[in-house]
Write a structure and sequence with these properties.
Blueprint lengths: L3 H19 L2 H29 L4 H8 L3 H5 L2 H4 L4 H24 L5 H29 L5 H29 L4 H4 L1 H20 L5 H22 L1 H5 L12 H4 L4
Length: 257
């Protein structure tokens, strides 16, 4: 009970930051790049303390990281929702995939499919693999994590949540034409802040379940697929590349609203 007030304050601040950040695309970009740099710095700092300043050597790191290969030997246990734990996260990622898909379609252009695969799957997977290898070494060797490092971990985690949320807000406000330019900065912030807090409270009331949202998204995917096969099959088959007008000039992002 004593943790709840602080938890709600952190959630409220995260939502408020995300709403304000979403009002300008340059803020979304700055937060995205900044949170990535801070995450990498956190990994490097903890790695250096454990494997350079500590008793462990670089060979210990590679030995720990090599244990990640065991996941591939047990990949069949992660492919299906064989229990409630898997089911929850599967539905969660289905629900989140709409935002990821729209964001990618809108802001990624001019690169080949294999380059997109590397940028969205390979590079993040390497970073996450190194991160969890370092964390596991701390756990296995009983290394103490300093208070400053704990605060840094929490801060980076919150920033990543804020960055994901501001991208989501930016997408649905653009889709619904409820932009800051149309509503005004103050009205935009108030509207989205109330909307996001309201949605958060709905999950707290325990009547809106992620399973329902995930199932709705799966139904939406199948409906879109059937519609494309029935009505837009030739149009989709004729697509050879991204339209030229979709090329994003990042130099203009600095001045974008």
């Amino acid at each position: 009970e004593t943790v709840k007030p602080a938890f709600y304050v952190i959630v409220f601040i995260a939502i408020a930051l995300a709403v304000y950040s979403s009002s300008k695309i340059k803020y979304v970009r700055i937060l995205s790049v900044g949170s990535s740099i801070l995450f990498i710095a956190l990994i490097v700092g903890m790695w250096f303390r454990a494997f350079v300043m500590g008793e462990g050597g670089v060979s210990d790191f590679f030995g720990t990281a090599g244990m990640l290969g065991e996941y591939f030997g047990n990949i069949h246990q992660f492919l299906l929702p064989i229990n409630d734990y898997h089911e929850f996260y599967l539905f969660w990622w289905f629900a989140w995939s709409i935002m990821i898909g729209q964001f990618t379609a809108r802001f990624v252009s001019g690169i080949r499919t294999w380059q997109l695969l590397i940028a969205m799957l390979a590079v993040p997977s390497v970073a996450i693999g190194v991160w969890f290898s370092v964390l596991y070494y701390y756990h296995a060797e009983g290394l103490q994590i300093a208070a400053f490092t704990n605060i840094a971990m929490i801060s980076v985690g919150v920033l990543m949540v804020v960055n994901s949320l501001d991208s989501l807000i930016r997408l649905y406000t653009d889709n619904l034409n409820l932009t800051a330019k149309r509503l005004g900065q103050v009205n935009y912030v108030i509207f989205n802040l109330v909307a996001m807090i309201g949605l958060t409270m709905l999950f707290q009331l325990d009547f809106l379940r992620i399973q329902w949202v995930g199932a709705l998204v799966i139904a939406l995917y199948f409906s879109c697929f059937v519609y494309i096969l029935a009505k837009k099959r030739r149009d989709v088959a004729a697509i050879t590349s991204s339209p030229e007008e979709n090329i994003l000039d990042f130099h203009k992002v600095e001045l974008a609203g």
